[in-house]
Amino acid sequence: MLHQEIRKKVLILSPSAEIDAHSTERLRSTIDHAFEKSPCTHMVFDFANVGFMDSSGIGLLIGRYKQAEKRGGSVALVNLSAEMKRLYTLSGLAKIIATFPTMDEALAHVKGGAQ
Amino acid sequence: MNNRVVLELAGHTVNVSLARVLVAAFIAPLDPDITELTDIKTAVSEAVTNAIIHGYGEDARKTVRMTLTLNDRTLTVEVTDNGIGISDIPTAREPLFTTLSDMERSGLGFTVMESFMDTVDVISTPGMGTTVTLTKSIHEATEA
User: Fold this and answer.
1) Which residues of A touch B (CB under 8 A)?
2) For the segment A86-103, what is each residue's pLDDT rounded down to a tens digit?
3) Which of A69, A87, B35, B72 is most open to solvent, judged by the fewest CB atoms within 10 Å of its CB?
């Protein structure tokens, strides 16, 4: 349901689930536990294997952004589908969480500290 | 084509995905494009989630009723709960308004429904429940 990896001290999270009110409960606790244990300050979410997301996913991302912010870090997204991008744009999330076509660009963004 | 399906769901969030699957199957004969399909699935997800989480506070003993109606190429989705109701509907429909910020609810449910569907009607009586009615016309596929 969630693949985790640490690369260049960034926690990379790759959910493989439909993200809704039900799945976010487990995702939230798994991500927060992994982030708490890790030395990372930044998170990058890879949405390549997410087939669906509703506004529960927006709440999940805002919450994780706040967690990263507490450590002086940031959050970035990669591989958002065109459909998910519409929800992302509608939510206004783009003001605080940037999205990128590739993992390398996302990693460079969070490591560079750009917002 | 005209058609009608009624589904009753226990008030547990695990059933939100079931509602999405049903509406996707219901409109499949109309061959919607991926954007229409995603819009409808997302709006249904929001409406059923609201009924379960806000209407019932996630009480699996309670029942959410979803009625899907197809009149020609117009889909109507009616989602009804008999939960706590909404005392101030205009405020509840405002973007980012939520009564459950500690649960990381984004407060975007109605905004998503309004953006992704053609019409959204809300009828609610505090203490009695809420009915959200969504409609959307599904366009005829054009030949490539």
Assistant:
1) 18, 20-22, 24-25, 28, 52, 54-56, 58-60, 62-63, 82-83, 86-87, 90-91
2) 999 999 999 899 999 999
3) B72
Q: By the CB < 8 Å criterion, does B119 face chain A?
A: no
Residue A87's closest chain B neighbor by CA?
A: B112
Q: What is the pLDDT of residues B99-139, one digit of tens each?
A: 766 667 778 999 999 999 999 999 999 999 999 999 999 99
Strand duo B119-125 + B129-137: pairing: antiparallel
Domain count within chain A: 1
CA distance B15 to A27: 17
Please report the DSSP string for chain B in residue order. -EEEEEEEEES-GGGHHHHHHHHHHHHGGG---HHHHHHHHHHHHHHHHIIIIIITSS-TTSEEEEEEEEETTEEEEEEEE-SS--S-HHHHTSTT--S-GGGT--S-HHHHHHHHSSEEEEEEETTTEEEEEEEEEPPPPPP-
Looking at chain A, the whole-number percentage of residues with pLDDT higher than 90 is: 90
Other residues' Cβ atoms within 10 Å of the Cβ of residue A105: 13
B41 shares contact with chain A (CB less than 8 Å): yes
pLDDT, residue B96, reads 73
Residue among B105, B35, B22, B116 at smallest CA distance from A81:
B35
What is residue A100's three-state secondary structure? strand
pLDDT at B143 over 90: no
